[in-house]
Specification:
Layout (H helix, E strand, L loop, with lengths): L18 H8 L1 H18 L1 H4 L31 H37 L1 H15 L3 H12 L3 E2 L2 E2 H27 L2 H8 L4 H9 L4 H24 L11 H4 L3 H4 L6 H28 L6
Antiparallel strand pairs: 1-2
Helix pairs in contact: 1-2, 2-4, 2-13, 4-5, 4-7, 4-10, 4-13, 5-7, 6-7, 7-10, 8-9, 10-13
Length: 298
């Protein structure tokens, strides 16, 4: 039987891996962080079905109960199951963290692109305002904002708290996006778009914004961790989420600080949840940066 000459055989393109498989193989630590995030998100979304108890149920007969089969994470000073409150707290942390990061990163990216595009006096004024915001530590700026605007709960979510966390994130994102937009502004296709008579809005949204999508996505992911930590800090200080809402930072304050010796599980498990969430998002954000960077791709 005659065989087909090698030169005449059709060339088969190598199969491309799915992006998820490629990410997991190239960034195993980032994939592990993403897995932790997905587990927390699943627990937060389906908390009603996953949590063994209602987080608001009070059982004075089980106050300060040590971890057991009935209460794997123990109970607090009101007899509430800590495991259930940690699971429901994931919903609070991820909701506030994602919305705060999304609002802060989107505002920062929009201001950064516009400032770089218009340049001149507009850029100078905007950058001096950003310098003022950057001069404050992020926790101090969040404290000032939440103290000034107060609280505005809606559907169990404090909108003003989300805004107070988003504002300190915005200037940091603005600086990074502006730096990327300044180089994009000098590209030939931007000059061609101006010569073609395109409006400023079209140039910004159709030609500049898509080219800063990679740093935007990286910062969006990374600042979720910062937002979760800020929410926990503000709740611990009494300026964030309030009782009886289940929140990790709130679980570390109040009675937990009074009973930390005889009931250390009251602060151990919420603290581990905060640490795991922040660590997972940082791992995923760093890995996503490396994966999207063309200089690091093989």
């Amino acid at each position: 039987m005659a065989t087909t000459p090698t030169a005449l055989r059709p060339y088969k393109l190598p199969k491309r891996r799915h992006w998820a498989v490629s990410f997991a193989l190239r960034q195993p630590l980032g994939a592990a962080g993403l897995l932790v995030i997905l587990v927390m998100a699943f627990g937060g979304i389906f908390a009603e079905f996953v949590a063994p108890y209602d987080p608001l149920d009070i059982d004075f007969g089980a106050m300060l109960a040590a971890p057991s089969i009935e209460h794997p994470f123990g109970t607090d000073a009101f007899g509430r199951d800590i495991l259930s409150r940690v699971i429901y707290g994931a919903r609070t942390a991820l909701t506030i963290g994602f919305l705060s990061s999304f609002i802060g990163c989107t505002l920062g990216a929009a201001i950064g692109i516009a400032s770089a595009f218009f340049g001149g006096r507009t850029d100078m004024i905007v950058q001096r305002f950003i310098d003022v915001l950057l001069s404050f530590p992020i926790i101090v700026l969040a404290l000032v904002v939440v103290a000034m605007i107060g609280r505005a709960p809606l559907f169990g979510i404090d909108l003003n708290l989300i805004l107070a966390i988003a504002i300190p994130i915005m200037p940091k994102v603005e600086r990074v996006v502006r730096a990327a937009a300044l180089s994009i502004r000098e590209m030939a296709y931007i000059d061609a778009a101006r010569a073609a008579g395109f409006s400023n809005a079209r140039i910004i949204f159709r030609h500049m914004a898509p080219n800063v999508a990679a740093p935007y996505l990286i910062m969006l992911t990374a600042y979720i961790a910062q937002a979760i930590l800020l929410e926990a800090s503000l709740s611990f200080l009494g300026l964030g989420v309030t009782e009886p809402t289940a929140a990790w930072g709130l679980m570390l304050s109040g009675n937990a600080s009074d009973f930390y010796r005889e009931a250390p599980w009251m602060i151990l498990f919420p603290g581990l949840a905060i640490s795991a969430a922040v660590f997972a998002f940082n791992l995923f954000g760093d890995s996503l940066r490396d994966w999207l960077d063309p200089k690091l791709k093989a």
